DNA sequence: GCCAACGTTGGC
DNA sequence: GCCAACGTTGGC
């Protein structure tokens, strides 16, 4: 199964808010980038991803899971973009910061490091395993 | 708050 | 269809 990384500014949508939504989860709306859209469209129910806090915190703080596959984002008036629904699965005992990721051998290729502007990214199996271990999971 | 990197828009 | 100008994101 594929793995993903979702970026959010905590002042806009935080991990705590995501956790508060519980098992019903929330829609991940607002994506207006075609590469990110392709990633959203490739997601399947049950696939997991990292929840990353950008700007403030700059750390992977938890794991989320896709509970509804790609469907239209009604907040997009152009009708071109869509979204998925995700729910919080578990928090990292120890958040993995961007600094930690940059220093860790094996994570040099992470999109988070190389293309900081992409808001929804794929994560390889190797990267997934390493980051989970670093965060205490 | 600044600015580099990236995407998008629009004139030609 | 090219590319300059502009807007946005996000690390620092």
UniProtKB/TrEMBL annotation:
CDD domains: EVE (cd21133). SUPFAM superfamilies: PUA domain-like. Residues 2-134 form the EVE domain. InterPro entries: 5hmC_binding (IPR052181), EVE_domain (IPR002740), PUA-like_sf (IPR015947), THYN1-like_EVE (IPR047197). This is EVE domain-containing protein.
């Amino acid at each position: 199964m594929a793995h993903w990384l979702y970026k959010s500014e905590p002042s806009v949508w935080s991990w705590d808010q995501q956790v508060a939504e519980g098992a019903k989860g929330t829609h991940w709306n607002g994506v207006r980038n075609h590469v990110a859209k392709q990633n959203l469209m490739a997601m399947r129910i049950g696939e997991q991803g990292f929840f990353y806090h950008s700007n403030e915190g700059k750390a992977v703080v938890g794991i989320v899971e896709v509970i509804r596959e790609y469907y239209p984002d009604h907040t997009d008036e152009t009708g071109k973009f869509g979204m998925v629904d995700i729910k919080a699965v578990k928090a990292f005992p120890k958040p993995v910061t961007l600094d930690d990721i940059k220093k860790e051998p094996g994570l040099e290729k992470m999109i988070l490091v190389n293309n900081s502007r992409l808001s929804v990214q794929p994560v390889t199996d190797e990267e997934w395993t390493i980051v989970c271990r670093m965060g205490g999971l």
